[in-house]
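For practice. Any example?
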Amino acid sequence: MMKRSVWSRRVAGMVGVSMALAGGLAARTAAAEEVHQVATFDPTLGQLPESIAADGHGNFFLTMGTTVRELTPDGQLSVVATLPLPAGASTAGVALDADGNILVVSDAFAPIPLAARLWKISPPGAGPVTVDVVATFPPEAFLNDLVIDDDGTVLITDSFLGRIWKVDCAGQTSVWLSSSLLDGNPAAPILPVHSLGANGAVFDAGKRNLLVGNLDYGQILRVRIQRRRDGEAVAGRTEILAQDPRLAGADGIALDRKGTLYVGVNIRDRIATVDRHGTVAVVAEGGLLDGPSSLVFGTTHRTRKTLFISNFAIGRALGFVPGAPHPGVVSLEVPEPGVPLL
């Protein structure tokens, strides 16, 4: 077992302090009535859901600590796999590929060796679950979110190094994009533990652009995609689609079919929208929202216009925000269905 890093000890201590002081939910801003509770989790058991993905049957897959868990439509929560991560490391972004495999990234707030990885977990229910390392990254990297292209290529945002990594079907890793627009803001980080830049990512409907959130700067970036003859995506011009104080803390993002982007503004307990012209609006805030970190549209006929949101509750769990943490999954009904991810 590796020694716990300085960052890990600090985070663990803050968790202890916040649990000791938790005596009720702090006052919040006005809540949107459209937000509904889907599932509640126990923060004392480490059930803090960082990222959420959905299959075609209404099941959700959530990253929590070193585990990936499945939440069924009837509310049953179970562990799909536990990743063999070193102390201080945890899972982050999660996605499903065309074969039903679960792809997950892991990271750590300090350069713990072999924490930054891309993992593949075999489909649940198809026999014994296997967990394999697909790719390994520099220890200084902080992998956050991932998207899967039509050819199986995986693009991964790196919140520390200001990069987007590419992993091809053979597991070969390269830098797909490096830009100062992907950097965090060390002079004024949103989270006290570290500056964070590139975060949530999603393709647009035609996969002609990749939209990326920058957490510290409250930005939504648009990366133009050029396609080679074989269909391979090449990063083109990177530009700021939107920048707004209401987006400061932008985490997970999801896109509807009309081009409206939904943004989980984590530390602000807020869901904002950004239209295709860059106009920002707040559609839900406070209430049942507690550190919304990841968003996914429902995939069944009844849930196509439902946005499901993971309440990471990390701000209250670590004491950045007063009050007791309330991790879970909540939902928000929206006017348009989401863009299919595969």
Remarks:
- The CA atoms of residues 40 and 328 lie 4 Å apart.
- The radius of gyration is 18 Å.
- Residues 1-32 have pLDDT under 50 and may be disordered.
- The longest strand covers residues 233-243.
